[in-house]
Amino acid sequence: MRNAEFDREKVLRSAMTAFMDKGYGKTSMQDLTKATGLHPGSIYCAFDNKRGLLLAALAQYRTDRSAEFLRFFSGNKPVLVELKAYLDNIVQECISCEAAKACLLTKALNEMAQQDEEVQTIITENLANWQQGIADVLALAQTKGELSAKRDSQHLARFLVMGIYGLRTFAHTHPKGETLQELADQLFFDITA
User: pTM of the full predicted structure?
Assistant: First the structure.
């Protein structure tokens, strides 16, 4: 049997969207074939099964989100300016009706954590790495004198991550852009005050 040829990143991003739209349990193989454009046999050949496709999609999600994070925090601008732009981007994700799609990790964690230890471990590690990236950014801001060093960067990162989770959840029932922006601005103020 020959291997199917396809754009792996494109297929995985399409699978991410399908999983975020319906959740893992409600996403059928028919949904995945429609979303990815692959035949069921190609999905099985490349990923073994639906769970294998989810694991590969989670890995791609991490790669994509890490690259996005680095784009925000790799410039010559002051760290706090980059942090504000990052929060504003999250608000735009929520406003653009993509709140339900905003985080494959939290969606999969809520649905599958108790059922699949490997998936839980992968998601937990991804979220911990994201939080550590934020802590590193905040520590850099402290080193540069942009942010008071009186507060622990790890604690601030946990607070910020909690606020981002809350913002994305709040957006499901309160999608008004100005309200979400006010909350993000308050979160930024609470971190930087």
Answer: 0.85
Structure tokens at 132: 């550590």
d(CA 98, CA 87): 15
* Rounded Cα gap, residues 193 and 184, in angstroms: 14
pLDDT in tens, 85-100: 999 999 998 888 654 5
Place of tokens 């990236």: 133
pLDDT in tens, 117-172: 888 888 889 899 999 999 999 999 999 999 999 999 999 999 999 999 889 888 87
CA–CA distance, 178 with 93 (Å, rounded to integer): 13
Tokens 């319906």 appear where?
A: 22
Q: Which CATH superfamily is domain 1-63 in?
A: Homeodomain-like (1.10.10.60)
**Single-letter code of the amino acid located at 93:** E
Closest by Cα among 11, 53, 8 to 28: 53
Distance between CA atoms of residues 18 and 63, nearest Å: 18
Q: Does domain 73-193 have CATH number 3.40.50.261?
A: no
DSSP-assigned letter for residue 153: H
CB 32 within 8 A of CB 53: yes
